[in-house]
Amino acid sequence: MSQLEKAQAEYEKFPQEFASIIIGTVDVQGIPNASYAPFWMDDSKNIYIYVSGLSTHTKNIYINPHVSVLFIEDEAKADQVFARRRLSFDCTASLIDRETDKWNYIVDQFQGRFGQIVDLLRGLSDFRIFQLTPSEGRFVIGFGAAYHISGENLNQLVQITGDKAG
């Protein structure tokens, strides 16, 4: 198996190690906000977050739908803190209308993944589901092992070298 094939296999399973993602948003003045949210990912790598309308990140998403997401290896599990495995995507957020078939399907996925707390959230009218649609990304496995992600269904990894911007 080549280095690229190994990276591809690791990339495919990496998001499954997480129950939440770090999200980066910006407000109307361009001031960034880092936060997190539990998520569910579909087979097309769309990421769904179920968040309160009262939160800063939700307010920011309404202002600017461009969102950065980050999956990052736990420091305690990393061989080297300077080279933690991480996956980031540049995404565009879109609101899923409440009580539609799609909304109910996604809530059911959250219920299966996170349990009874979702029953409570389902009843809270300020909670929203956003679909974060990735356009490209970056997967870093370690020193000298960084890959640009693109292509249909975000399945194409291209190693980033000193010659290529990524």
Order of helices and strands: HEEEHEEHHEEE
- Largest β-sheet summary: 6 strands, antiparallel, barrel
Structural class: alpha+beta
Fraction in helix: 10-25%
From the N-terminal CA to the C-terminal CA, the straight-line distance is: 24 Å
Radius of gyration: 17 Å
Structure explained in plain terms:
- With 166 residues, the chain is an alpha+beta fold.
- The protein has four helices and eight strands, in the order H-E-E-E-H-E-E-H-H-E-E-E.
- It has a six-stranded antiparallel beta barrel.
- The radius of gyration is 17 Å and the shape is globular.
- The mean pLDDT is 92.
Features:
about 170 residues, six-stranded antiparallel β-barrel, alpha+beta, globular, 4 helices
List the helices and strands and how they pair.
Elements: H1 3-13, E1 20-26, E2 32-41, E3 47-52, H2 56-63, E4 66-72, E5 86-96, H3 101-114, H4 117-122, E6 127-142, E7 145-150, E8 156-159
Antiparallel strand pairs: 1-2, 1-4, 2-3, 3-6, 4-5, 5-6, 6-7, 7-8
